[in-house]
Amino acid sequence: MERLEAGVCKKPSTTTNGTKYPMVLAVSEDWAPSGAGNGLGTLYAFQKACLVAKEKNGVDLKAELEEGKISAALFHTAGKGTRLAPLPASENNNKPGVKLPVCHQLTSGSQEPITVLEAVVRQTGIYAPSRLGRLSVYWGDQIFVPTSPFEYTPTHHVDIMCTLYEEPPTAKVWKDRGLEKYGVIAVSSGEKGDAAQVEKVDHPTAVRMLKNLGDIGQVGPSLGSFSVSAKILGALCDEFKEELKAKEGKLDTDPHFWMPMTLAEDEYISLMAQKEVSEDESRSHHIRMTKMKETFLAANTELGLFGAVDVGNNACWWDYGQLKLYIANNLKLSEEGDDADLLRQFFGVTSRVMNSEVSGVSVDPKAFVSSCKAKTGSVAGHSTIAAMEAEEIQIGKGAVLYNLISEAEEGIVAEDGDVIVAVTDVDGSSMLLKSKISICGGGAWKKVLDGNSVSFEEVHKRNKDSDVSTIEKKRKELYKKASSSFSGP
Prior knowledge:
Elements: H1 2-6, H2 37-57, H3 61-66, E1 72-76, H4 87-90, E2 99-105, E3 111-115, H5 116-124, E4 134-139, E5 142-145, E6 156-162, H6 171-176, E7 183-188, E8 195-199, H7 203-209, E9 216-229, H8 230-239, H9 241-246, H10 253-262, H11 265-273, H12 279-299, E10 304-310, E11 316-319, H13 323-332, H14 338-347, E12 353-354, E13 361-363, E14 368-373, E15 376-379, E16 384-389, E17 392-395, E18 400-405, E19 412-414, E20 418-424, E21 430-436, H15 456-462, H16 468-485
Parallel strand pairs: 1-4, 6-10, 12-14, 13-15, 14-16, 15-17, 16-18, 17-19, 18-20
Antiparallel strand pairs: 2-3, 4-9, 5-11, 6-9, 7-8, 7-9, 20-21
């Protein structure tokens, strides 16, 4: 939170003294063990954020949103990060705090590696001016850069981000694009541009399910991110007030909010049957959501119910939720092509070696090094280094080194394909946690891999109550100490 306030959410120098915006609020989900789902989780997080805003800053967030004075954004960061292991362990379970091998400047003037969440906040901020009086909801490990205009006037109480194809949604387009594998947004060809959502269905089934829309003008895969007006946000909070009060139930936005609002009852029941939800349960929920929808629309006619925000057919999308994708996207920074050029432009990358002192180190042109200090050694191609201090480094091909400090003369050695991170405790002690780029952390979560004394799961348990801010300060002290120990000629 402090990093966000000092970095991507810092107050512009032109703002009036005393302004409380941008305001950064951190809340956690103290729900039943199974979790609230991203639907109830969104409502609950907004309510908790309103309480924190009032207590910390004396601001009535709900009222200011309803009056259209502000736009708000919520970033979901839940999950253990098993598929990204062992990197989140090195941030003491702070999955959105995983660093990328590129830097940005903080208010102190220092250069620090940007985290995945900071990158997401930076990117999604472009939609804020168009969304006064709305809450935007994003996932904390996905970055996308739109190729369609991002300034727009909302026409619906709910709008969901998607990539709409220019071709008419024929059976051939559906098959060629592989739309049966995705959650799909369909937009009516009518003037209002009403939309609906289906999930993992073939073309004939989609046409049948979407009959309420009439003629379909465009379709495309959903990004999942969405925005809601303050009015429908309030209606949803009111509809589910008992669940929110009891902190019970688990509902997701797509199957439990948007689909029952946009699909006919029988079609919704059919779709939910694929998820092994009983007919009675699906019918009851559809009736509930339909009643809420009809009551809401009768009182709020200024906007449509559900629409789409097209990010563009050629939009770039980078997912950092898996180790293999984290590696692939980082290596893209040293590649050629439009996608790689845009990624470098987004992060302001001007060199494969940034914020580093490695003049005595041989760095392969296909490696990427950030916030590293070393006197001698070599870094082989396709390797990624983020935050490392050692007198000598010998890094093999395709290795990933993260949050490492060594004062030993032999420095740090990594073989081809090694993934090595340090897990630091509040007292400054640390342990190495190792993996391979070929290993999925989710599949190996409970295993003790070669070179480790404990499993990723055990480290996660140990990190559960860690003081992340204090540990980050301690880590910086260790970096400074290690750096001074070999800073001589």
